[in-house]
Amino acid sequence: MTNDFYCDEVLSGNTEVNKVLETDNVLAYHHTRPFYPVHIVAIPKKHIPSLIALKDHDNELLLELLGVIRKIAAMVTEEHGACRVITNIGEYQDSKHLHWHIVSGKPFG
Fold first, then answer.
1. 31 in a structural domain
2. Which of 101, 36, 103, 41 is nearest to 76 (CA)?
3. Intra-chain end-to-end CA distance of the chain, in Å
4. Is residue 27 part of a domain?
5. φ, ψ dihedrals at 18, nearest 5°
6. Closest by Cα among 43, 56, 55 to 95
7. Residue 55's domain spans which residues?
8. Is 109 a domain residue?
9. pLDDT tens digits for the chain (109 residues)?
10. Which pLDDT does position 109 carry in this prediction?
11. 3-state DSSP percent of the chain in helix, strand and coil, to 5
12. 95 and 5 in contact (C-beta within 8 Å)?
């Protein structure tokens, strides 16, 4: 196991997801085990371990990813009044694949 849920499960098709928005290089979908009432994950389709692992040649992909995140954040804010956009690095990052959470509401639990 590579500890990359996004490559191993989502992008491979092993785990089915409810897509929110997809481009050639980015996928955004409803979290499979949400921690918030609204919990959407946005990932690049290319494996990049984390935000700090991005290289200069990834700039176009990063702009596309941020464009998707911006659109979803606007949709969530329009519908729910507010949202958070979160990424984790290091020990806080369970799956070692760059991903962003777009969330709204109080966390469950």
1. yes
2. 103
3. 28
4. yes
5. -95, 100
6. 43
7. 5-104
8. no
9. 568 999 999 999 999 999 999 999 999 999 999 999 999 999 999 999 999 999 999 999 999 999 999 999 999 999 999 999 999 999 999 999 999 999 999 999 8
10. 82
11. 35, 20, 45
12. yes
pTM of the model: 0.95
Using alpha carbons, select from 4, 44, 1 the residue that is nearest to residue 22. 44
Number of H helices, E strands in the chain: 2, 5
Burial of 102 (0-12, 13-18, 19+ CB in 10 A): buried
Determine the 3-state secondary structure of 75 from DSSP: helix
Report the CATH number that the domain containing residue 83 is assigned in CATH: 3.30.428.10
> What pLDDT score does 42 carry?
98
Give the separation between CA 10 and CA 43, rounded to whole angstroms.
Answer: 10
- At 3 the pLDDT is 84
